[in-house]
């Protein structure tokens, strides 16, 4: 590369790859190969554990797809994801609108924006441990809820079969909405004042303006972060694992927990890989959908 | 009339904005308040909101325990190395993407973007055997290398974007003076892009500092554990010392919080760019 001026066609051909080589090597070794490996494991018996695993065709897939626990994990994941995403959009939208009104001073909005983004700053184990403390039977949540007759000193949340899934969803909503808020806020600030002013002259009320001006403006943002959030929430593991470990009695076992338990608790890597491949396929389909949406938005 | 309507609107909105702040901020406040209480007080019923004795015992207990301090050292080392490597490797790749056209460009780009769609747990299963084969199990490098897969895409996408806004005349000028492409990149393009790179670095630090799943599986002994796993280990010990756990949580969140407060604008720009989350 030193003789930049006298370079031949080969040097010219190879230069971009030299700049990309560290990235490409890493992606090959730690991304492309592992994905092939995990697909391979799913067709063998006792992968990783024994030296020469036996090819078993699709029998692992049959085992997983006929496992009622797998389907209950899918159901839990679906509830968790749908509730989280809807709540994220709603709360993110409300907070973004609050931070975008002209009723507050810029400085006030600045301070509240910092407070509103706070939940996003914490790592999963801090979020888990903090909510575990607050959701204890003698914790602050029960104390506050007893004033509105929603709980007593003995109310269980995380160890209750009925409420555990709702509790982890609630925690996930708390920790995830700031991403929406910030993205929507960026979108709202791009909406021109003129649009609102001219509609105000036409006599459109606040609600009508929200429906006919604000929503269409932020719709592309909502769709794209919504898709990303679905993919991320399907993958979420850490907070659930630390809050409940999938329990009580698998009521909060989502697909990630299901895979993790197979792989790292019972060393059934083949079955874990099979479930992982299924999860991967779902995520990739969603991602393709997302990319198509992005392209449409750009046109 | 209009004035009074505006005033009542402002009052209503003020109530909402404060309620929202309570929802977002109260748990954080509760963590900090609990860290200054004794363990008995944490479970007082009715709860004491503020303990005016402000005992630093929990903080002292953590900072004087070498095993727990080690969690922090590990996390700092790993996070800083990840940031440095991500920036160096990512800047080079971004330069390649921004300044060249080559046959495999589209494919490599697709692979990099697709990382977001791949659940970490899918990669973790083959990592178990790969990392053991490479003799990296229970070392810093196991975590550093695997974190790069998740930090690089964001770095490359953002930096390519910055480089694309910079005119190629800059590179040409350097090359006419006899400098190589390398000089053009590190002496001219990188210094101009510092504000953007700070944002990328920060975001990378946050991802590395907060990662839990890989740190849990790819390390084994306590002297290799990072802060997120360390906090969780406290939870596993037979006595639940909540006050210490809250102190450790607060200490563990401090680096990211400080970065955030100082570089808020960058962080928010990074978030609304809507890319990779750890």
Topology diagram in text:
The complex is a heterodimer of chains A (299) and B (278).
Chain A: H1 9-41, H2 59-65, H3 68-100, H4 106-117, H5 124-134, H6 140-145, H7 164-189, H8 193-201, H9 206-235, H10 238-243, H11 255-265, H12 269-298
Chain B: H1 2-35, H2 39-42, H3 57-63, H4 66-99, H5 105-114, H6 120-133, H7 140-165, H8 169-176, H9 181-192, H10 194-210, H11 213-218, H12 227-236, H13 242-262, H14 264-272
Q: What is this structure, in a nutshell?
A:
The complex is a heterodimer of chains A (about 300) and B (about 280). Chain A has twelve helices and no strands.
Structure commentary:
Chain A has 299 residues and is mainly α. Chain A has 2 domains: 14-41, no CATH class; 67-298, MetI-like (MetI-like fold, Orthogonal Bundle), CATH 1.10.3720. Helices cover 72% and strands 0% of the residues of chain A. Chain A has helices at residues 9-41, 59-65, 68-100, 106-117, 124-134, 140-145, 164-189, 193-201, 206-235, 238-243, 255-265, 269-298. In chain A, helix 2 (59-65) packs across helix 12 (269-298), helix 3 (68-100) runs parallel beside helix 7 and helix 7 (164-189) crosses helix 9 (206-235). Chain A is globular and about 75 Å long. The two termini of chain A are 39 Å apart. With 278 residues, chain B is an all-alpha fold. Chain B has one domain: Orthogonal Bundle (MetI-like fold). The longest helix of chain B has 34 residues, at 2-35. The N and C termini of chain B lie far apart (51 Å). At the A-B interface, helix 1, helix 3, helix 4, helix 5 and helix 7 of A face helix 1, helix 4, helix 5, helix 6 and helix 7 of B.
Helix content of chain A: over 70%
Second CATH tier, the architecture of the largest domain in chain A? Orthogonal Bundle
Output the CATH topology of chain B: MetI-like fold
Which class best fits the helix and strand makeup of chain A?
mainly alpha
Oligomeric state, counting identical vs distinct chains: heterodimer
- CATH H level of the largest domain in chain A: which superfamily? MetI-like
- Spans of chain B of at least 5 consecutive residues whose pLDDT stays below 50 are 274-278
Q: What is the CATH superfamily of chain B?
A: MetI-like
Largest interface: A-B, 94 and 96 residues
CATH class of chain B: Mainly Alpha
Class derived from helix and strand content of chain B: mainly alpha
User: How much helix is in the residues of chain B?
Assistant: over 70%
Output the helix-strand order of chain A: HHHHHHHHHHHH
Number of strands of chain B: 0
What is CATH's topology name of the largest domain in chain A?
Answer: MetI-like fold
Query: Counting H and I runs of at least 4 residues, what is the number of helices of chain A?
Result: 12
Shape of chain A: globular
Largest sheet composition of chain B: none
């Amino acid at each position: 590369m030193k003789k930049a001026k006298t370079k031949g066609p080969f040097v010219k051909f190879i230069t971009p790859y030299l700049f990309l080589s560290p990235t490409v090597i890493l992606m090959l070794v730690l991304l492309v190969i592992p994905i092939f490996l995990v697909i391979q494991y799913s067709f063998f018996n006792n992968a990783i554990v024994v030296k020469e695993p036996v090819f078993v065709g699709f029998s692992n897939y049959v085992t997983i797809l006929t496992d009622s626990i797998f389907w209950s994990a899918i159901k839990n994941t679906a509830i968790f994801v749908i509730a989280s995403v809807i709540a994220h959009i709603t709360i993110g939208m409300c907070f973004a609108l609050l931070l975008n009104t002209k009723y507050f001073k810029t400085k006030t909005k600045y301070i509240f924006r910092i407070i509103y983004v706070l939940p996003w700053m914490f790592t999963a184990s801090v979020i888990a441990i903090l909510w575990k403390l607050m959701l204890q039977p003698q914790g602050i949540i029960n104390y506050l809820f007893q004033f509105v007759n929603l709980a007593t000193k003995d109310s269980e949340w995380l160890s209750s079969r009925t409420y555990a899934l709702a509790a982890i969803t609630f925690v996930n909503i708390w920790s995830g909405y700031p991403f929406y808020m910030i993205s929507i806020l960026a979108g709202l600030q791009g909406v021109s004042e003129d649009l609102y002013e001219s509609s105000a002259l036409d006599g459109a009320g606040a609600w009508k303006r929200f429906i006919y001006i604000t929503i269409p403006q932020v719709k592309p943002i909502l769709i794209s972060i919504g898709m990303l959030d679905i993919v991320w929430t399907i993958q979420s593991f850490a907070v659930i694992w630390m809050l409940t470990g999938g329990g009580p009695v698998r009521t909060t076992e989502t697909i990630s927990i299901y895979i993790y338990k197979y792989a790292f608790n019972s060393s059934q890597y083949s079955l874990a890989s099979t479930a992982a491949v299924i999860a991967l396929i779902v995520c990739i389909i969603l991602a393709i959908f997302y990319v198509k949406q992005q392209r449409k938005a750009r046109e | 009339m209009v004035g009074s309507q505006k005033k009542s609107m402002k009052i209503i909105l003020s109530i909402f904005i404060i309620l929202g702040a309570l929802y977002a901020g109260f748990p954080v406040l509760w963590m900090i308040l609990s860290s200054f209480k004794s363990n008995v007080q944490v479970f007082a019923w009715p709860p004491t909101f503020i303990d005016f004795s402000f005992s630093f015992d929990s903080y002292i207990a953590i900072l004087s325990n070498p095993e727990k301090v080690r969690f922090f050292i590990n996390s700092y080392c790993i996070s800083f190395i990840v940031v440095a490597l991500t920036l160096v490797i990512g800047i080079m790749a971004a330069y390649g993407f921004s300044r060249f056209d080559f046959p495999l460009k589209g494919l490599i780009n697709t692979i990099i973007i697709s990382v977001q769609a791949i659940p970490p747990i899918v990669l973790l299963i083959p990592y178990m055997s790969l990392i053991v084969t490479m003799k990296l199990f229970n070392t810093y490098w196991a975590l550093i290398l695997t974190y790069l897969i998740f930090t690089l895409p964001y770095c490359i996408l953002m930096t390519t974007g910055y480089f694309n806004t910079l005119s190629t005349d800059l590179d040409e000028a350097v090359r006419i003076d006899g400098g190589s492409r390398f000089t053009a990149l590190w002496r001219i393009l990188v210094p101009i892009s510092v504000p953007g790179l700070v944002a990328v670095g920060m975001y990378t630090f946050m991802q590395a500092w907060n990662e839990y799943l890989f740190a849990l599986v790819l390390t084994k002994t306590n002297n290799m554990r990072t802060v997120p796993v360390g906090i969780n280990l406290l939870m596993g010990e037979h006595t639940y010392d909540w006050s210490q756990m809250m102190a450790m949580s607060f200490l563990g969140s401090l680096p990211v919080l400080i970065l955030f407060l100082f570089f808020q604008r960058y962080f928010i720009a990074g978030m609304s760019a809507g890319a990779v989350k750890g």
